[in-house]
């Protein structure tokens, strides 16, 4: 769940544009995204608001609302807020105070709205001018309407416990707490029972919950990655590799003394990425999908939708690897079983807000991890394109001490063979990157230690083998490895900053 509370970029925007102008700019951006169907679905999935809890439904000034939680803004912000708030989980927008001079501004904001809009009018003239265009009118002395200026989730959720109470946040709340405030209040106001454990589910595979299948895919990817690493560190080539190349490992070494090491470096990095994907899928299954979070299923689905189709890279490379194909055939039906049904109702426990400095440091860590994931995705896309076209980058050829033409003269099947490994690694890297980006953006909650350990395990599995294998074969060109070093630094700093927040001790579970 992205929470843009005190990200450096937002702080810079506030310094350059001013707080009020930067606030309006952020609302306009959210409004621009949220007003489009695809953008609204993306934001809603990220914040988990497609199905608001029924217990929080109610009304304000006689107007029914799906959730008794909203925002109160002046007329100058009404247009942006009306378009930006629905995907974020707000149930109502109040515009206040409104005079007759503001009538045109409010009418423009009300046009095409998808959220109840109420107005606190300053005079009868304003109310008469707006009555045909808005859903209702509030008054300053309504005891059921609670305006909050404090970003405290505890305060807002406690106010919602009062029957019929409607909590309206001031704009400064979102400035201080970010748009994720609505979701955090909703969770705190409607905690649910713990997720079912392994003993609560029968052994009939037809009745297995979706998270079991997601877990099996994660474990399968981990096992496949470890198996690929064992093969690479052992025989390097399997029988089908030798049959395709019509060469043995010794013959490859005799043709070029660096060639076998180059193949090992490609395959070890690919194996490490597979283990990283396995760690991400395992964490999503146990920590997210098992607890019914819609966003966890979306992360899993989007990552797999990128990773599994890479098996068809063989259409461009011409080399079909049986082990890769068999792994895909085995795991893909499990992947489908994991995403074919939506998860059950989300389950969570309320989390304490914690110290403000801790939360702000964690958000810098969040930004670093999202940035790392974005860099990995770009890198994976570039590697895929290179693998499907030129195959080698200049530093590869410098390490091999050969040109592409020289390698083709040794064996015309050698370049397509390398292309398969290279392109496959790029596809796997993109799949891992999507999971890292979205898990970091959507799963950021205090006390969710599984998010921290999932990202940490994926980082170790992905980065460590890449560094070790390059050092072992003496392929240490700094330009070639600079993205890896940069990724390690960003990930390490991000996780260190986020650990106190993500790994904060969760409150004790209530006794049944």
TrEMBL record:
The chain crosses the membrane at residues 211-240, 268-287, 299-316, 322-339, 367-393, 423-444, 451-473, 479-502. Keywords: Membrane, Transmembrane, Transmembrane helix. It comes from the Bacteria. This is Uncharacterized protein. The lineage of its organism: Bacteria, Bacillati, Actinomycetota, Actinomycetes, Kitasatosporales.
